[in-house]
């Protein structure tokens, strides 16, 4: 069925460290994988996305990798800052249903 | 361009009542999706509208319905409210394409619904 598993559910790092969040999807036909950041009381905002014809994408301190064979994709944040603290959601686009299925979210806390 | 807007921002209802929420997409966007966000279930897809037609639907009961108007504005309706319907309801708009090309979804601020 349609499912996206996201781990860990909470992540605490020291400022300057790296953070990695991992997701697994179930539909091999999925071709679009966005990552959203949601700060407390605010709307989710796209931070980076990747399509299935690309294995890795980077935007400054943020990178996403995709392993289609294993149906895994991961978010990497380097040199974390306190303002990176938020809930991060991964998602996979299911072509059959034409919808985005979200992971359960990871609450990232960056301690100064 | 103005972002996605939703009204009202907060709503308190009692069990058994019905509610209508509104979403205005970014100008030019024809696809509007609705999601329910709760602490326990995360973000769950409700349905998606494109050019006034419901293209996709999630696994929610028939009490949840929606529609889209010719100007792409969308409404969702929940009838016979239950306590478990308390949630943040988010809509998102995108420019085009699905299912051939899926583009970034831009979220609105949400409507916080509380059912007493």
Outline the structure in words.
The complex is a heterodimer of chains A (112) and B (116). Chain A is globular. Chain A is built from no helices and eleven strands. In chain A, strands 2, 4, 5, 9, 10 and 11 form a six-stranded mixed β-sheet that branches. With 112 residues, chain A is mainly β. The radius of gyration of chain B is 13 Å and the shape is globular. Chain B is built from no helices and eleven strands. Chain B has strands at 5-7, 10-13, 19-24, 31-38, 42-50, 53-57, 64-68, 74-78, 87-94, 106-107, 111-115. Classes of the chains: A mainly beta (112), B mainly beta (116). Chain A binds chain B through residues 31-32, 34, 36, 42-46, 49, 89, 91, 93, 95, 97-105, and chain B through 33, 35, 42-45, 48, 55-56, 58, 90, 98-99, 102, 104-110.
Strand content of chain A: over 45%
Secondary-structure class of chain A: mainly beta
> Biggest sheet of chain A, in brief?
6 strands, mixed
Low-confidence stretches of chain B: none
Biggest interface, CB < 8 A = A-B, 23 and 21 residues
**What is the number of E strands of chain A?**
11
Largest sheet of chain B: 7 strands, mixed
Number of helices of chain A: 0
Order of helices and strands of chain A: EEEEEEEEEEE
Oligomer: heterodimer
Share of helical residues of chain A: under 10%
Which segments of chain A are poorly predicted (pLDDT under 50) over 5 or more consecutive residues? none
Compute the CA-based radius of gyration of chain B. Answer: 13 Å
Strand content of chain B: over 45%
For the residues shown, what is the average pLDDT of chain A? 93
How are helices and strands ordered from N to C of chain B? EEEEEEEEEEE
Overall 3D shape of chain A: globular
Q: Kindly, what is the distance between the CA atoms of the first and last residues of chain B, rounded to a whole number of angstroms?
A: 37 Å
Query: How would the global form of chain B be characterised?
Result: globular
């Amino acid at each position: 069925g349609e499912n996206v598993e996201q781990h860990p559910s909470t992540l605490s790092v020291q400022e300057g460290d790296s953070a990695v969040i991992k997701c697994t999807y179930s539909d091999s036909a999925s071709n679009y994988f966005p990552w959203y950041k949601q700060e407390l009381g605010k709307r989710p905002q796209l931070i980076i996305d990747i399509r299935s014809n690309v294995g890795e994408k980077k935007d400054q301190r943020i990178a996403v990798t995709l392993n289609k064979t294993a149906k895994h994709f991961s978010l990497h944040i380097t040199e974390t800052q306190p303002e990176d603290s938020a809930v991060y959601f991964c998602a996979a686009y299911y072509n059959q249903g034409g919808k985005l299925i979200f992971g359960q979210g990871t609450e990232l806390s960056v301690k100064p | 361009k103005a972002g996605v807007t939703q009204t009202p921002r907060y709503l308190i209802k009692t069990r058994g009542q019905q509610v209508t929420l509104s979403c205005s997409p970014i100008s030019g966007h024809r696809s509007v999706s609705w999601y329910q966000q709760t602490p326990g279930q995360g973000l769950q897809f409700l349905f998606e509208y494109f050019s006034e037609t419901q293209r996709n639907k999630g696994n929610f009961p028939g009490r949840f319905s929606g529609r889209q108007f010719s100007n792409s504005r969308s409404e969702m309706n929940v009838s016979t409210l239950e306590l478990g319907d308390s949630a943040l309801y988010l809509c998102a708009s995108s420019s085009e394409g699905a299912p051939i090309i899926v583009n970034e979804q831009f979220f609105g601020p949400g409507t916080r619904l509380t059912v007493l």
